[in-house]
Amino acid sequence: MGRPRTPLLDRERITTTALQLVAEQGDFSVPQIARRLGAQTGSVYHHVDGRGGVVELMRERVCDAIDGGTLDVEPWDRAMAAWARSYRAAFAAHPRVIPLLMTTPVRAPKVLAQYERAVRLLRGAGFANPDVMTVIIALENLVLGSALDLAAPETMWELPDDTSTPELARALSAVGAGRAEAAFDLALTAFLTHCRTLLPKAPAPD
Amino acid sequence: MGRPRTPLLDRERITTTALQLVAEQGDFSVPQIARRLGAQTGSVYHHVDGRGGVVELMRERVCDAIDGGTLDVEPWDRAMAAWARSYRAAFAAHPRVIPLLMTTPVRAPKVLAQYERAVRLLRGAGFANPDVMTVIIALENLVLGSALDLAAPETMWELPDDTSTPELARALSAVGAGRAEAAFDLALTAFLTHCRTLLPKAPAPD
DNA sequence: ACCTGAACACCGTTCAAGT
DNA sequence: ACCTGAACACCGTTCAAGT
Question: Most buried among A36, A41, B165, B196, by the most CB within 10 A?
Answer without folding.
Answer: B165
